[in-house]
């Protein structure tokens, strides 16, 4: 082993130091890839962990929970529950996001509990002076007393004993801070934006009387929670305590996987860099390898020396990734946090915890990628025979292999298209990687064909240098093909994402303008955070209905439900009023026949996401327990919907109100009858009036503004994606630069011979330029082809599997027409160092070497 | 004597009961606000069955049962069940508006139960607590029966008998207790002084002899049991007098069908406070009040708790004059300590005892319960 390390230092490392610039390029590429991969994983892991631990802290030590989908659990259930022999304890919990007068921009979670029952479930970590030991009883003894997390107290600028005016809808009430929660644990719920109060104070403040969000249960050992079923009223169900967390995590899972895969692309592209350099070292040192072999070095020794070289690049890149990643992670954390909060679940990450598992994973993946990159060149090195020590020339490259590789590539592409049909989120990504692998395997064959077919044609355009360049590329074998494959990967990804994002945006835009129609949107303050549990206050609603304005109202009622583990929103709307001003984007169903049936309450409409996630479609029946009753209706159609918090089921507002005795309205759209040029000022005027009437209870957004916000959020969401994409393009560019440099270095004697026999330096530079151009063109052409295939996979397979939606396929030709030449130009720029390199030493010196 | 600040009253949930204990300590040392509560300053004019119910105008109240029973095979058991009510703020009428939560309550109930399996030297305890709201806990009266309950535990005080029901993971009690004598009013017609001033007092009565029968479960085994039991009901608002370290309380049922209740208020310097007192109940139910001067107690043996390091008396010589009693009392098992430091931080001893000796020269024996507080670390209850 010692001999191996000594040999590695003398043979590989010394050589690497001699050629440090090319090594640095490869290490930089790996470092960039590893930094992106690790930072994205760490950032998203931090967000997901923050959400999960918040939910776990709220769930506490419960073994099961009682909930009532779409409603409140009747509080009268507490007494029989507490007396049930299967239970050792039970505790009520209600939560609401509220704000304070001092910081209306900082919503925080107010948790209503019964302090008597509570400590069996959640260790609310209060660090209180000895004089405050009765703190928890104070919550019960004193109306509107609360214990705030230290972070919240800081945000509110209030301490123990001070009053804070809390706001929920149009209710304002002073709450006294009776104590401060510290020391981690529950005080970190929602990033420390949490306060706890007695359930009675909570109910009186929020107006949620008569019920609680849930009852947490602790079972006696060996007891079965289903034993409770007999005493549960209709609509109340027994859930796992982690149900809410799991539902949130399910929404995040696809986003998490998506970003992880994207971040891996840079590292994947880096693999080509390692291959390229190790292969160069192997090829340029065949004679030395032959000497080693003739001195007794085994094939295995050579194999492991080159594998170790790859590992060395991986290790160096991984270590160099730390400083890069440290800077990157902060940026990504902010972006990812914001995206998750906006689209999925509310998260607050204040500190980034360095998860050892993520570090180990990043190390393992980086090393695996580097070792994989070095594997083929290492195998190639094994094949060096001792007799080559007497050979002056490098043996001819094995051109015949390209056909085999091409066959493998085509097979991989077909296999990719086959496995894309398998359900589940992993096959989609696996298909994408197979596609990349297939295209990479095709690269040598493409270069070979270019070399064979183009020279005569090229010589007419670019003269002898172009012809020579094509020939050289054909003969350069795998090495040039690897760089082309790297560029192919990056271009394919770029192209595919450009098509996908454009299609997505185009479809979302159509959805926003047709389905998210309305001039004004009204909903209770923080309705989204509070999952639409609070209705528009009846007083406000009455005043609204008396508004003397030429408008139509479209009230709706939204309930957050769960269908076999699939979270979705149940929306009741007035289909007739809706169809007057807007329309759905239909995926299945005939609007002409479906609308009348929907208006009669004879069926439901489901979103594409709901249909894909549950497997239900037109002809199936939708059956759901909503509050105390069951709704059982056929599914009449499927429509597009791009809400990120699950699928949607639409049902008639009037029929739901009648059947479920649910007259509450928790949202409303307002349409102006007169659509003339005075519409915008009229909307603004009405908005102002409603805001005044609602006394702060409502969020009132102009439709135009809302639609702009949705598209803005959409664009922000893809900001991270494009950053990752640009990085993979940079890594691919490094690959081209490195390969060209390698090709030049390898053939310096050849070039100088050409110079010596009369070629001008300009002609030699031209050869290099043409090589760069041809490589880039080959990479781009294959990349574009792969990009379109990948875009199909992304839109119709991966998005469907991961998020449940698809889009109308649209190619953004303008963007591609602008960006692809730019990529070409950028890639050509990377050939400049190689052009400079070729003439850096006098020909005589180089010729004398041999 | 089970004063309102009795540390025996611990609870289920750590933070809460610690907090409660703290409130009680505050009460005990005279630091708590009494304003707004009714005070016991004179005759209690107790009438039954009404006064078996709750007296919510007073700050604290408890219903307390202890007993010594044996199985069909003669295996001895001790049991204890206490319901404790505390008003967290004065006044029962809540600030009324349309938005009144059904959870709103100023009354907190805590219940504590224990079983001593003498032969197996096992002492098990359990606690539970709830606010008086939504029928989670409280006191109900109807059909001449008063029911005191906290979650699933209850004591139904009916015209014929008292029924106790306790269900916990480790043990359960289902007992019927039939009064053998009318209620005993301690002190002056139930007005029981607990300190130097008239308002340091409680209204206090007992059922000193109840015939007990029913079932006791310990772990997976259930026994039919029979024996005798004792019931106390007491309410007050006044805090305990400053300077007291704790108290020793004895309730004994003797073989000559007499009963004795005595309490010694221990000062910090070891002296017994002059307000210490007792009640002797003769076989017909007639009572004799005993003052400090008529009572003498001597500790014969002590036991050190391996858990808390507190040293408790476990054998005593207790004597009274007029009636002349000379009794040797011993704990049936030493370890009947209630150690709730992990939850409430409160440590005390409450257990089944036997007594032997003479009454006016005639040999007597008996069983009973003793409660001792203030022997461990200072009565403190961290959150």
According to DSSP, the number of beta strands of chain B is 23
Indicate the structural class of chain B.
mainly beta
Largest interface: A-B, 44 and 38 residues
The total domain count of chain B is: 1
In one word, what is the shape of chain A?
Answer: elongated
Percent of sequence in beta strands of chain A: 15-25%
> What is the mean pLDDT of chain B?
85
**CATH topology category name of chain B:** AttH-like fold
Summed up, the domain count of chain A is 4
Question: SS-based structural class of chain A?
Answer: alpha+beta
- CATH homologous superfamily caption of chain B: AttH-like domain
Largest sheet of chain B: 13 strands, antiparallel
Q: Assembly type of the shown chains?
A: heterodimer
Architecture of chain B, according to CATH? Beta Barrel
How would you characterize this protein structure?
Chain A has 4 domains: 1-60 and 241-395, no CATH class; 62-240, no CATH class; 401-519 and 704-850, no CATH class; 526-696, no CATH class. Helix content of chain A is 58%, strand content 15%. In chain A, strands 12, 13, 14, 15, 16, 17, 18, 19, 20 and 21 form a 10-stranded mixed sheet that branches. A 6-stranded mixed beta barrel of chain A has the order 3-4-8-5-7-6. A two-stranded antiparallel sheet of chain A has the order 2-9. Chain B is mainly beta. Chain B has one domain (14-372): AttH-like fold (Beta Barrel), CATH 2.40.370.10. Chain B is 4% helix and 52% strand. The longest helix of chain B has 15 residues, at 14-28. Chain B is globular. Mean pLDDT of chain B is 85; it is low at 1-32 and 378-383. The chains are: A alpha+beta (850), B mainly beta (383). Chains A and B meet through α3, β3, α4, α5 and α7 of A and α1 and β4 of B.
Describe this protein with a few key phrases.
heterodimer, A: 850 residues, alpha+beta, 4 domains, 6-stranded mixed beta barrel, elongated, B: 383 residues, mainly beta, AttH-like fold, 13-stranded antiparallel beta sheet, 10-stranded antiparallel beta sheet, 1 helix, 52% strand
């Amino acid at each position: 082993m010692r001999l191996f390390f000594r040999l590695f230092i003398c043979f590989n490392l010394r050589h690497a130091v001699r050629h440090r610039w090319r090594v640095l390029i490869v290490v930089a590429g790996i470092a960039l890839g590893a930094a992106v991969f690790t930072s994205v994983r760490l950032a998203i892991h931090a967000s997901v962990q923050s959400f999960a631990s918040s939910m776990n802290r709220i769930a506490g030590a419960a073994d099961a929970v009682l909930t009532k989908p779409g409603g409140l659990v009747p509080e009268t259930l507490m007494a029989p529950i507490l007396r049930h022999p299967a239970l050792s304890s039970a505790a009520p919990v209600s939560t609401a996001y509220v704000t304070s007068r001092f910081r209306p921009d900082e919503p925080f979670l107010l948790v209503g509990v019964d302090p008597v029952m509570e400590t069996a479930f959640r260790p609310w970590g209060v660090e209180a002076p000895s004089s405050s030991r009765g703190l928890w009883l104070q919550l019960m003894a004193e109306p509107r007393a609360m214990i705030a997390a230290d972070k919240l107290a800081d945000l509110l600028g209030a301490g123990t004993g001070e009053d804070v005016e809390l706001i929920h809808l149009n209710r304002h009430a002073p709450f006294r801070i009776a104590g401060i929660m510290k020391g981690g644990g529950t005080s970190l719920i929602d990033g420390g934006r949490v306060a706890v109060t007695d359930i009675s104070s909570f109910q009186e403040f929020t107006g949620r009387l008569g019920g609680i969000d849930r009852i947490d249960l602790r079972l006696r050992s060996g007891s079965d929670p289903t034993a409770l079923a007999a005493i549960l009223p209709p609509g109340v169900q027994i859930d796992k305590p982690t149900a809410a967390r799991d539902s949130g995590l399910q929404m995040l899972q696809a986003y998490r996987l998506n970003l992880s895969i994207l971040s891996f692309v840079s590292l994947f592209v880096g693999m080509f860099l390692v291959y390229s350099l190790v292969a160069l070292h192997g090829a340029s040192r065949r004679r030395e390898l032959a000497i080693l072999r003739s001195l007794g070095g085994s094939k295995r020794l050579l194999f492991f020396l080159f594998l170790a070289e790859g590992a060395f690049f991986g290790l160096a890149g991984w270590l160099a990734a730390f400083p890069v990643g440290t800077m990157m992670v902060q940026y990504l954390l902010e972006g990812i946090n914001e995206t998750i909060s906006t689209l999925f679940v509310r998260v607050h990450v204040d500190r980034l915890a360095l998860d050892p598992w993520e570090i180990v994973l990043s190390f393992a993946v980086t090393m695996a990628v580097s070792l994989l990159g070095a594997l083929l060149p290492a195998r190639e090195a094994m094949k060096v025979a001792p007799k080559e020590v007497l050979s002056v020339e490098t043996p001819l490259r094995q051109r015949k292999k390209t056909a085999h590789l091409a066959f493998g590539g085509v097979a991989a592409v077909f296999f990719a298209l086959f496995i894309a049909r398998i359900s589940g989120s992993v096959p989609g990504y696996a298909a994408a990687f197979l596609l990349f692998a297939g295209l990479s395997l095709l690269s040598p064959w493409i270069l070979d064909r270019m070399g064979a077919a183009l020279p005569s044609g090229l010589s007419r355009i670019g003269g002898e240098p172009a012809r020579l360049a094509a020939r050289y590329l054909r003969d350069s074998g795998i090495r040039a093909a690897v760089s082309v494959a790297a560029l192919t990967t990056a271009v394919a990804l770029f192209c595919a994402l450009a098509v996908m994002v454009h299609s997505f945006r185009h479809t979302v835009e159509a959805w926003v303008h047709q389905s998210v129609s309305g001039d004004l949107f009204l909903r209770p303050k923080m309705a989204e955070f509070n999952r639409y549990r609070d209705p528009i206050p009846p007083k406000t609603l009455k005043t609204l209905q008396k508004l003397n304005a030429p408008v139509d109202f479209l009230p709706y009622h939204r309930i957050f439900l769960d269908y076999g583990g699939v979270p979705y929103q149940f929306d009741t709307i007035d289909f007739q009023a809706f169809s007057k001003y807007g329309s759905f984007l239909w995926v299945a169903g005939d609007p002409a026949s479906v609308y009348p049936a929907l208006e009669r309450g004879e069926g439901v409409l489901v979103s594409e996401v709901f249909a894909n996630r549950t497997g239900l479609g037109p002809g199936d029946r939708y059956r759901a327990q909503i509050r105390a009753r069951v709704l059982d209706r056929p599914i009449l159609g499927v429509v597009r919907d791009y809400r990120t918090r699950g699928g949607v089921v639409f049902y008639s507002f009037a029929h739901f109100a009648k059947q479920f005795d649910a007259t509450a309205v928790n949202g409303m759209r307002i349409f102006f009858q007169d659509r003339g040029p005075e519409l915008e000022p009229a909307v603004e005027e009405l908005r102002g009036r409603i805001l005044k009437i609602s006394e702060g209870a409502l969020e009132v957004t102009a439709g135009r503004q809302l639609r702009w916000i949705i598209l803005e959020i959409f664009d922000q969401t893809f900001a991270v994606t494009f950053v990752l994409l640009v990085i993979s393009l940079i890594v691919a560019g490094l690959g081209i630069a490195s390969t060209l440099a390698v090709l030049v270095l390898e053939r310096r004697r050849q070039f100088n011979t050409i110079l010596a026999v009369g070629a001008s330096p300009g002609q030699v530079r031209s050869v290099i330029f043409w090589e760069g151009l041809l490589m880039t063109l080959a990479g781009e052409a294959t990349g574009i082809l792969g990009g379109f295939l990948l875009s199909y996979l992304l839109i119709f397979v991966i998005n469907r599997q991961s998020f449940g939606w698809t889009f109308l396929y649209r190619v953004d030709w303008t963007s591609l027409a602008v960006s692809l030449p730019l990529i070409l130009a950028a890639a050509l720029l990377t050939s400049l160092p190689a052009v400079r390199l070729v003439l850096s030493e006098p020909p005589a010196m180089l010729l004398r070497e041999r | 004597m089970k004063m309102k600040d009795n540390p025996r009253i611990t609870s289920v949930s750590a933070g809460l009961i610690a907090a409660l204990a703290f409130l009680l300590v505050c009460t005990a040392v005279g630091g708590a606000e009494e304003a707004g509560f009714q005070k016991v300053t004179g005759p209690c004019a107790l009438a039954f069955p009404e006064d078996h119910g709750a007296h919510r105008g007073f700050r604290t109240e408890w219903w307390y049962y202890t007993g010594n029973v044996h199985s069909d095979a003669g295996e001895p058991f001790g049991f204890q069940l206490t319901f404790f009510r505390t008003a967290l703020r004065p006044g029962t009428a809540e600030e009324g508006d349309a938005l009144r939560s059904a959870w709103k309550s100023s009354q907190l109930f805590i219940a504590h139960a224990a079983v001593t399996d003498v032969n197996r030297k096992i002492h098990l305890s359990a606690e539970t607590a709830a606010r008086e709201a939504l029928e989670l806990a409280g006191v109900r009266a109807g059909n001449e029966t008063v029911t005191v309950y906290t979650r699933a535990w209850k004591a139904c005080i009916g015209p014929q008998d008292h029924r106790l029901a306790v269900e916990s993971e480790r043990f359960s009690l289902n007992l019927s207790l039939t009064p053998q004598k009318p209620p005993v009013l301690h002190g002056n017609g139930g007005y029981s002084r607990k300190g130097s001033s008239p308002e340091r007092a409680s209204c206090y009565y007992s059922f000193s002899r109840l015939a007990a029968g029913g079932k006791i479960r310990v772990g997976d085994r259930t026994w039919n049991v029979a024996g005798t039991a004792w019931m106390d009901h007491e309410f007050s608002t006044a805090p305990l007098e400053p300077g007291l370290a704790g108290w020793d309380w004895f309730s004994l049922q003797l073989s000559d069908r007499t009963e004795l209740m005595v309490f010694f208020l221990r000062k910090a310097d070891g002296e017994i406070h002059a307000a210490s007192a007792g009640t002797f109940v003769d076989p017909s139910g007639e009572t004799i009040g005993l003052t400090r001067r008529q009572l003498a107690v001597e500790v014969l043996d002590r036991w050190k708790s391996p858990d808390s390091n507190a040293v408790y008396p476990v054998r005593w010589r207790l004597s009274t004059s007029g009636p002349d009693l000379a009794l040797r009392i011993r704990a049936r098992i030493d370890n009947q300590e209630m150690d709730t430091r992990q939850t409430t931080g409160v440590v005390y001893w409450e257990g089944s005892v036997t007594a032997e000796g003479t009454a006016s020269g005639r040999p007597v024996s008996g069983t009973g319960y003793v409660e001792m507080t203030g022997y461990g670390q200072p009565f403190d209850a961290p959150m």
